[in-house]
Write a structure and sequence with these properties.
heterotrimer; A mainly alpha; B mainly alpha; C alpha+beta; B: MetI-like fold; 12 helices; globular; C: 34% strand; elongated; binds adenosine-5'-diphosphate; binds magnesium ion; transmembrane (chain B); MetI-like (chain B); transmembrane helix (chain B); transport (chain B); Spermidine/putrescine ABC transporter permease (chain B)
Chain lengths: 259, 275, 338
C-alpha cells in the first residue's frame, strides 16, 4: 500500500515547511554569533536579553499591547450588540449592517491605513495613536461579530423570552441569561482579536509617528538597519507568547470550537 | 425574535456607523482621488498608471503570484488534508493544531525566517556550498520564488483547514463505494472528492488568494524593490513618489480584486445553501 | 365574566398573517386545550398572550385589565415553552428561583418557596443539578415548576407532552391535571393530538388557519362537531356534503329525505357505518386488524368509505364485494360542509 507511506510523508513535508522556519528562528535566537545564521554559532541568551534593553521595542510593545487590548475591547463593545441585534431582532437592513461590519475583511489594511492618514490624521489633526486605535478596532470588529454571532446561533433564543416572561427586562435577560452562555465565545473572540491586532502590519504601516509605532512596524524598521539575531529572539518570544495564550484558551475553553 | 425596531437599531447602528466612519468615508475619499483629473472627473490617473509598462508588469505579477500560490496551496492542501482526515481522532487534533500554530505567529517573524534560509549565508546556500554544487552564493532573496515560498507558507494553513473540514463532511462511505465500483484514484478525486468538497476549496481558495494579494510584509522583505507587488508599489508610490492618484488606482485594484473574490465566494455559498 | 378575553386578536409575521380576528373567553380556573394542525397559529396566539408578539389589532384582557400593550415582564402570565427554554448555566434551584429573585425575594422565604415548587414536581433530589444533565421529562418538570412558582394568572403550555415518550406522556398528563385541579390555576395548553385534548381539557378550542373553528366541551367536540374540518379531526372519516336534500358523492347524488334541518353535511365514524348489509355496495381496498376491531377501506361509487367491525366476525378478502349502509340515525349532522 503505497498510500500508507505517501500520506504521512506529504504531511511530514508540509509540517516541515510550515514549522521549520519557526524552529530555525528559535534556534537562531540562542546564537552566540553576531549575525543571523543557521546553524547558530554557539549558544547564549545574549540576544534574548538584548531584546529587553532596546528602548524602542519596549515602547512599541506597549503601543501594540494597548491597541490589541483596547481595540479588541472596543470591537466587542460595538460587535456584541450588533451580533445580538442581527440574531434576535427583526431588523430591516440587517444585510447592510452585516456588510458594513465585514468591510474591514474585504478592504486591504494598507488602503485603510493610507486613507486614515490622508483624511483623518493630516487634515483633521487626529492623533496617530487614536487613528491606530480606530483602525485596529474596525479591523477586529468583523471577527468579534462573527464569533459572537456563532455563539448566539448555538443558543436557543427562547431562553431570553422565558427570562422576560419571568419578569426580567430585555437588558436583564441579556445579562443574566445570554452573557453567561456566550462567555466562551466572547473570550474566543477576544483572543482572536488580540492576536490579529498584535500581528497586524499593513494597517499600521502608514500610521506611525514619533514615539508611536506598533511592534511589528518597529521590527521591520529595525531589520532594515541591523542584521543581528535580536529580531529572531523577539520573534520567538512573541511566538511563544501567542502560542501560550492560545494553548491556555484551548485547554480551558475549547477555543477551536469558536474559530 | 424581538420586534422592537428602535431597540434593534440602537444595538446594531453603533457598529455600522463606526465602520462607515472609519472605513467607508476615508476609503471612499481615497478612491475618488483617483478619479479626479486636472479639470474635474476623469480616468486619467488610471490611463497614466497602466501606460507605465512597469506598473502593468507589477499588476500582472501580483495576479500571477496570487493564482500560483492558490493553485499550489490547493494541490498540497488536498494531499495534506486527506492525510490528516484519515488519522485517528487524537492524532488528527494534534496535527490540525500543528497546522494552525504558524497562524498565531507574527508574519514578520515567519517571513524573517526565510532570510535565514534563503539569504547569502543562509541554510540553502551553505548546504549547496558544502555539497560542492556552487562556489559563490546564489541569490534567492528578492526573487519571485522567494515571495512565492513566503506567501505559500503564510497562507497554506488556511487552505488545509478549509479542506480538512470539507473532507470531514464527506459522506463516510463515498470513497470506498466508488473504489468498489471500479474507479481509480484520479477518478475518485475528480468524480467524488472534488464535487463534494468544492465549497471548502472555494472558501480556502478565496482566503489564500485575497491573503496573497493583500500581503505586505512578504513582498516587502522577500521581494524588496526588485520584485514589487501592488502592496509594496502602493507603499512606494506614497512614501517615495508622493503620487496619490497612482496610490488611489492601486487601492482600487486591490479592493476590486478582494471584493470580486469575496462576492464570488458568497454567490457560491448561497447558491449551495439556497437549494 | 370571563377572566381572559381575546377580542378580535389579529397577529402577523411581517406581511404574512398568522391569526385573524380571534375571539375567545376563558373563565377563571378553566383548563383549555388549543387544538389544531401544525401551523394553524396556536403558538403564535400564546406568544401574543405572553407579550412576545406584537398585536396588530384587537385586545387582550386579563382579570379585568387591558394587557394588550403591557410589556411581557409585567403580565403575570406563565409560559412553558415547547423546548422548555431552561437556563443551561443554572441549577434546577436557580432556574426555579430566577423569577422570584427578580421580584426581590431572597433568603429563607425564597428557599422555602423554591424548594416547595421543586418538591411539587418531584425533583427534590435534583435541586442542585445543572439542567442539561437531566432527562426530557425532568426538564419539563423544571420548566413547569419555574413557571408555577411565579403564581401566574394564566399558565400556558406549548405542546407540553409532544417531546416525551409514550409512557412519560401519560404520566405528565395525569400530573398536569392533578396540579391544575389542586391549584385551581387557569391553564391553556397547546396540542395537535385530539386524544390529549379530549382527556385533559374542560373546554377545547379547535383552531384552523389562524381562526377558531369550534369551541366546546370534549363531549361537544367529539360527538357534535360543527364542521367537516372538526369532524375529520376527531375521527369522522366518511363525510358527505348535502345539497338540495341529497348527499353530494363521487357518483350520483344520494337523496336523504330524513336529513336533520339545517345540516350542511353528514359524517360517520367508521364504527357508525353499517357493514355487511344495506343500500350500497363497495369493494374492499384494504383491511387492517386493530385488536378488538377490524377496519376496512371500501372503494364505492360514493367515494372511499371507512368502516370498522367487530374482529370476531369473519374477515373479508381484498377485492371482495360487500354491502354497507350509511344510516342517518348514526350520522353527525354538520353545520358547515367545509
Ligand atoms: N417566526 C416566524 N416567521 C414567519 N412566520 C412564522 C413564524 N412562526 C410561525 N410562522 C407562521 O405562522 C403560522 C402559525 O404558526 P404557529 O403559531 O407556530 O403554528 P402552530 O403553533 O399552530 O403550529 C404558520 O403559518 C407559520 O408558518
Ligand atoms: Mg407550535
Amino acid at each position: 500500500m503505497t498510500r500508507n507511506i505517501l500520506a504521512p510523508l506529504t504531511l511530514g513535508l508540509v509540517l516541515l515547511f510550515l514549522i521549520g522556519p519557526f524552529i530555525i528562528i528559535v534556534a537562531a535566537s540562542f546564537s552566540a554569533g553576531e549575525t543571523l545564521a543557521f546553524p547558530p554559532q554557539g549558544f547564549s541568551f545574549k540576544w534574548i536579553a538584548k531584546v529587553f534593553t532596546v528602548e524602542s521595542f519596549r515602547q512599541s510593545f506597549g503601543t501594540s499591547l494597548f491597541l490589541a487590548i483596547g481595540g479588541t475591547l472596543a470591537a466587542l463593545i460595538l460587535g456584541i450588540p450588533a451580533a445580538y441585534a442581527m440574531s434576535r431582532y427583526r431588523l430591516p437592513g440587517a444585510e447592510t449592517v452585516r456588510f458594513m461590519v465585514s468591510l474591514p475583511i474585504v478592504v486591504p489594511g494598507i488602503v485603510v491605513g493610507l486613507a486614515l492618514l490622508r483624511y483623518f490624521v493630516i487634515p483633521a489633526g487626529v492623533p496617530i495613536l487614536l487613528a491606530l486605535f480606530l483602525a485596529h478596532t474596525a479591523l477586529i470588529l468583523p471577527y468579534a461579530v462573527r464569533v459572537v454571532s456563532a455563539s448566539l446561533a448555538n443558543l436557543r433564543s427562547d431562553m431570553e423570552e422565558a427570562a422576560v416572561i419571568l419578569g426580567a427586562s430585555r437588558i436583564g435577560a441579556f445579562v443574566r441569561v445570554v452573557l453567561p452562555n456566550i462567555r466562551g465565545g466572547i473570550l474566543a473572540a477576544f483572543i482572536l482579536g488580540f492576536v490579529t491586532s498584535f500581528n497586524q502590519v499593513p494597517v499600521s504601516l502608514f500610521l506611525s509617528g514619533p514615539g508611536v509605532r506598533t511592534l511589528p512596524i518597529d521590527m521591520l524598521g529595525y531589520m532594515e538597519i541591523v542584521f543581528d539575531p535580536s529580531i529572531a529572539a523577539l520573534s520567538s518570544l512573541l511566538a511563544f507568547l501567542s502560542i501560550g495564550i492560545v494553548l491556555l484558551a484551548e485547554r480551558f475553553l475549547g477555543f477551536s470550537r469558536y474559530v | 425574535m424581538f420586534h422592537n425596531r428602535a431597540e434593534a437599531y440602537a444595538l446594531a447602528l453603533p457598529a455600522a456607523v463606526f465602520a462607515a466612519i472609519v472605513f467607508l468615508v476615508p476609503v471612499g475619499l481615497l478612491l475618488s482621488e483617483g478619479l479626479h483629473g486636472p479639470g474635474g472627473w476623469s480616468l486619467s490617473a488610471y490611463v497614466q498608471f497602466f501606460s507605465e509598462p512597469l506598473n502593468q508588469k507589477i499588476f500582472l505579477r501580483t495576479l500571477k503570484l496570487g493564482l500560483m500560490v492558490t493553485a499550489t496551496a490547493a494541490v498540497i492542501g488536498y494531499a495534506t488534508a486527506y492525510a490528516i482526515v484519515s488519522m485517528p481522532a487524537g492524532t488528527k487534533g494534534r496535527m490540525i493544531g500543528l497546522v494552525v500554530l504558524p497562524m498565531m505567529i507574527s508574519p514578520v517573524a515567519r517571513t524573517y525566517a526565510w532570510i535565514v534560509i534563503l539569504g547569502r549565508t543562509g541554510i540553502v546556500n551553505e548546504a549547496l556550498k558544502f555539497v560542492g554544487l556552487t562556489d559563490a552564493p546564489i541569490r534567492f532573496l528578492f526573487t519571485e520564488t522567494a515571495v512565492f515560498l513566503g506567501l505559500l507558507q503564510l497562507f497554506l494553513p488556511l487552505m488545509i483547514i478549509s479542506l480538512v473540514s470539507a473532507l470531514e463532511n464527506l459522506p463516510k462511505d463515498a470513497v470506498p463505494a466508488a473504489r468498489i465500483l471500479g474507479a481509480n484514484w484520479l477518478q475518485v478525486f475528480v468524480k467524488i472528492i472534488l464535487p463534494l468538497t468544492r465549497e471548502g476549496l472555494i472558501v480556502g481558495g478565496t482566503l489564500v488568494f485575497t491573503g496573497s494579494l493583500t500581503a505586505y510584509i512578504t513582498p516587502a522583505i522577500l521581494g524588496g524593490s526588485k520584485v514589487l507587488m501592488l502592496e509594496t508599489l502602493l507603499y512606494q508610490q506614497v512614501t517615495v513618489a508622493s503620487n496619490f492618484p497612482a496610490a488611489s488606482v492601486i487601492a482600487f485594484l486591490l479592493i476590486a480584486m478582494s471584493f470580486s473574490a469575496n462576492i464570488l465566494l458568497r454567490r457560491i455559498a448561497t447558491a449551495r445553501s439556497g437549494k | 365574566m370571563s377572566f381572559l378575553r381575546l377580542d378580535g386578536l389579529t397577529l402577523a409575521y411581517g406581511k404574512t398573517p398568522a391569526v385573524e380576528g380571534l375571539n375567545l373567553d376563558i373563565h377563571r380556573g378553566e383548563l383549555i386545550a388549543l387544538l389544531g394542525p401544525s401551523g394553524c397559529g396556536k403558538t403564535t396566539t400564546m406568544r401574543a398572550i405572553a407579550g412576545l408578539m406584537p398585536v396588530r389589532a384587537g385586545q387582550i384582557t386579563l382579570d379585568g385589565r387591558d394587557i394588550t400593550r403591557v410589556a411581557a415582564n409585567r403580565r403575570e402570565v406563565g409560559l412553558v415553552f415547547q423546548s422548555y427554554a431552561l437556563f443551561p448555566h443554572l441549577t434546577v434551584f436557580e432556574n426555579v428561583a430566577f423569577g422570584l429573585r427578580l421580584k426581590g425575594m431572597s433568603g429563607k422565604a425564597l428557599e422555602d418557596k423554591v424548594m416547595a415548587a421543586i418538591a411539587s414536581v418531584g425533583l427534590t433530589p435534583f435541586a442542585q443539578r445543572k439542567t442539561p444533565d437531566m432527562s426530557g421529562g425532568q426538564q419539563q418538570r423544571v420548566a413547569l415548576a419555574r413557571s408555577m412558582v411565579m403564581e401566574p394568572k394564566v399558565l400556558m403550555l406549548d405542546e407540553p407532552l409532544s417531546n416525551l415518550d409514550a409512557r412519560l406522556r401519560l404520566e405528565m398528563r395525569t400530573e398536569l391535571q392533578r396540579v391544575q385541579k389542586k391549584t385551581g390555576l387557569t391553564m391553556i395548553f397547546v396540542t395537535h393530538d385530539q386524544i390529549e385534548a379530549l382527556a385533559l381539557a374542560d373546554r377545547i378550542v379547535v383552531m384552523r388557519n389562524g381562526a377558531i373553528e369550534q369551541i366546546g366541551t370534549p363531549e361537544d367536540i367529539y360527538n357534535r362537531p360543527e364542521s367537516a374540518f372538526v369532524a375529520d379531526f376527531v375521527g369522522f372519516e366518511t363525510i358527505f356534503a348535502l345539497k338540495d336534500g341529497a348527499m353530494v358523492t363521487k357518483g350520483e347524488p344520494v337523496p336523504v329525505p330524513d336529513a336533520p334541518a339545517g345540516a350542511a353535511a353528514l359524517a360517520w365514524r367508521p364504527r357508525a357505518v353499517t357493514f355487511g348489509e344495506g343500500r350500497f355496495e363497495g369493494t374492499v381496498l384494504s383491511s387492517s386488524f386493530a385488536g378488538s376491531a377490524r377496519e376496512y377501506l371500501l372503494d364505492t361509487p360514493l367515494g372511499p368509505v371507512k368502516a370498522e367491525v367487530d374482529a370476531a366476525l369473519p374477515a373479508h378478502d381484498l377485492g371482495a364485494t360487500v354491502r354497507f349502509d350509511l344510516p342517518v340515525a348514526t350520522a353527525a349532522a354538520l353545520r358547515r360542509a367545509e
